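Example: Glycosyltransferase family 4 protein.
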Amino acid sequence: MKGFQDFVRAMKLVSAKIPQAVFANLICTEKPLRLPGIPHKIHQPKTDRQMAHLYRSADVFVSTSWYEGFVLPVLEAMACKTAVVTTNSDGVLDFCHHGTSGFIVPPKRPRALASALLKVLRDRRLHRKLLVGAYHSALRHTKRQFEQDIVKTLEEIEQYHK
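Written out as structure tokens, the predicted fold is:
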């Protein structure tokens, strides 16, 4: 469901087009992952500060999930002013908008993912637009706002059942 094999295929396509520019930092908190044939480093951050540093040091954050309710890592990357290429895993559409705050592709489509990555990596103007849009979108989706939305939703449910 995380689409990691889609990421592997996409990275092979990207590295065939711009081999000198591809290096992947894999953030693996659950288990080590392998990215054969692509220069990479595996990170297992222990603190939020370490995680934020990884987000900020990336040219692009990539999420390949097929389905997620709420894709917190994408929002975290956006809050760290990192351009995002992500799959449309449903939950991401609550805060990420194609072409303004991220680049969204269909899940299970490694070629579309590679194409999006190439566009964002090659077009500095687009890259800048996405990271600025991502940051502004993330500012509207704070923990406090999330808590307020949950309370409002619960109140609406309670009113509905009266």
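The chain is about 50% helix and 10% strand.
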